[in-house]
Amino acid sequence: MSAASVERPFDEHSLIAEANRIMDRNPGYRVEIIGGQILMSPPPDGPHGDALTDLSMPFLASGLHGKEARMIQGIGLWLPTDASDYVIPDLSLVDGDYRDHLVENNCYDPDCFRLVLEVTSSNHRTDLRTKVGAYARAKIPVYVIVDRKHQRLHVLTDPASDDYATHRVHSPGEHVTLPESIGAAVTLDVEAVLAAGRPNEARGEG
């Protein structure tokens, strides 16, 4: 997602209220707070959503959308980084009882998240840098990034402090099997995922 920061002097409660007001005034935009800063992302393009749909399929085929686990787009994740911090990953794999872990502002405790996934848009640095530290500090076990700018798939595991101890980058032509700790064996076809997410102009269609 593309993101622009909004810096204003708010306390933790009014910061969340301001984020919600921004979201209400801009339907379709995604608003998050990381490190005490509001990040506002415009609606993504069609191929972004296309990639998310394709990415969901191997998880669903592996049985990771039932009583024990759920695949959910746009679910809020409460962060331990600041009193008002939260993010909204593009796609998340959560425990089946995630509803019991509601914290605040429609966001859920990071303990119920097994994996988060982001598909980059124009501001890819947010997903590749800012959110790496945020998800690592929240101890999210697996972070997957579909980097549409550089045509790579990143798989980050083993969160340690504000980074991940393991960060593997995969290219088109590879098939990547995610850690079975997520609950099942899931393999991603890197080329297929990247092809679904390529903007129209990259395909010569407009």
Q: Which SSEs are present, and which pair or pack?
A:
Elements: E1 4-6, H1 12-25, E2 30-34, E3 37-41, H2 46-61, E4 69-73, E5 76-78, E6 86-87, E7 91-95, E8 102-104, E9 107-108, E10 113-119, H3 124-137, E11 142-147, E12 152-160, E13 163-170, E14 175-177, E15 187-189, H4 190-197
Parallel strand pairs: 5-9, 10-11
Antiparallel strand pairs: 1-3, 2-3, 4-7, 5-6, 7-10, 8-9, 11-12, 12-13, 14-15
Helix pairs in contact: 2-4
Fold and architecture overview:
Residues 4-10 and 202-206 have low confidence and may be disordered. The protein is 25% helix and 33% strand. The chain is of the alpha+beta class. α2 (46-61) packs antiparallel against α4 (190-197). A hairpin with a 2-residue loop joins β12 and β13. It is built from four helices and 15 strands. The two termini are 21 Å apart. The radius of gyration is 16 Å and the shape is globular. It has helices at 12-25, 46-61, 124-137, 190-197, and strands at 4-6, 30-34, 37-41, 69-73, 76-78, 86-87, 91-95, 102-104, 107-108, 113-119, 142-147, 152-160, 163-170, 175-177, 187-189.
